[in-house]
Design brief:
Layout: E1 12-16, H1 21-32, E2 36-41, H2 44-57, E3 62-65, H3 71-81, E4 86-89, H4 104-132, E5 135-140, H5 155-173, E6 178-185, H6 194-197, H7 202-209, H8 218-229, E7 240-243
Parallel strand pairs: 1-2, 1-4, 2-3, 4-5, 5-6, 6-7
Helix pairs in contact: 1-2, 1-8, 3-4, 4-5
Length: 263
């Protein structure tokens, strides 16, 4: 799709975690807008599969194996990719565990991907943006970055770190022409969370918990990423767009208030 309202045609974008879930949906959405996508993921198999759908929608993507938790791997991928206009950080993992007993390895591995990895990629891919004085960095955070998610190890801690990383990038890079923003999804049905939805009536209960009436699809998040990646959001930086179907608004509804309960 060329000459669209977003004006993304001809841009180059690097997308981490592009082999599945939100990352894949973002890569597909960008390609549909005429963007040359550089797809990054640890799994070459998932990358190759996702690349087929991306190719069907737009320019043939560049596929690069990359472990975002490894600075050397990120540096190599940035070198191979060359100059980019957009970076979208989507790579993520999760590990269960309460604070009292989560292993150091599990705690660290989640932070290495979900937070440190975002810093490594921002620094490496942001270099070409800073040199040219123009670019957009979009990080997929989470509403759990502001609302603690229990028994999930360092997941919420890492997402909170991403929110502040983005703000610091916005502060330091704004005058140099590079913007940084976050998208904070709520409940999203992805390969990472699919196991939850296959248990009993969890899928129905989760849909009911969201005011819009359904759990998000990866494509819902990708549409917000498109706006932040484009110059249509040229005066938006350091912002966090909560994309949760209204789920975060339900907090006070969980508190009993006699006389105010919905009839």
């Amino acid at each position: 799709m060329t000459n669209s309202w977003l004006g993304l045609d001809g841009k180059v974008a690097a997308v981490t975690g592009a082999g599945s879930g939100i990352g894949r949906a973002v890569a597909e959405a960008l390609a549909e807008q005429g963007v040359q996508v550089v797809m990054l993921d640890r799994s070459v198999e998932s990358l190759n599969d996702a690349a087929q759908s991306v190719t069907a929608l737009g320019p043939e993507p560049t596929v690069l194996a990359c472990d975002v938790s490894d600075p050397a791997s990120v540096a190599n991928a940035a070198h191979e990719a060359g100059a980019v206009d957009i970076l979208v950080n989507c790579a993520g993992i999760s590990r269960p565990g309460g604070i009292a007993d989560v292993s150091i390895d599990d705690w660290s591995s989640v932070l290495d991907v979900n937070m440190n990895g975002y810093f490594y990629t921002s620094q490496a891919f942001g270099k070409s943006m800073l040199e040219r004085g123009h670019g957009s960095v979009v990080h997929v955070a989470s509403i759990s970055g502001r609302n603690a998610q229990g028994n999930s190890g360092s997941y919420s801690v890492g997402k909170a770190g991403v929110l502040m990383l983005s703000q610091q990038l916005a502060l330091e890079w704004g005058a140099r022409g590079v913007r940084s923003n976050t998208v904070s999804p709520g409940l999203v049905r992805t390969p990472l969370t699919e196991a939850y939805y296959n248990v009993g009536d969890v899928a129905q209960r989760r849909d009911k918990a969201v005011p819009i009436g359904r759990v998000a699809r990866p494509e819902d998040i990708a549409q917000v990423v498109l706006f932040l990646a484009s110059d249509r959001s040229g005066y938006v930086t350091g912002a966090d767009i909560v994309t949760d179907g209204g789920f975060a608004t339900t907090l006070m509804s969980s508190v009993p208030r006699p006389g105010y309960d919905e009839k």
